[in-house]
Specification:
71 residues; elongated; mainly alpha; UVR domain-containing protein; single chain
Length: 71
Amino acid sequence: MSGVQQRMQLLDGLKDAVSSQDFARAAQMKRQLDELEAEDPILRLRKALKAAIEQEQYKGRVLRVDWELAG
């Protein structure tokens, strides 16, 4: 299963767990989703760029993320 498929499956499960108020399962799925996203360099870059745009700190954040991805 690809990372995208895993992410979609976890998101669907997370939505189901929250809607059925199974918060223990939702917390577990959220941790799994966070771990999966932390391993994906594209998602890390996307989150960092989004945060930089929101904070209007483009240059330093983008350069730092590029350096992290290169290393």
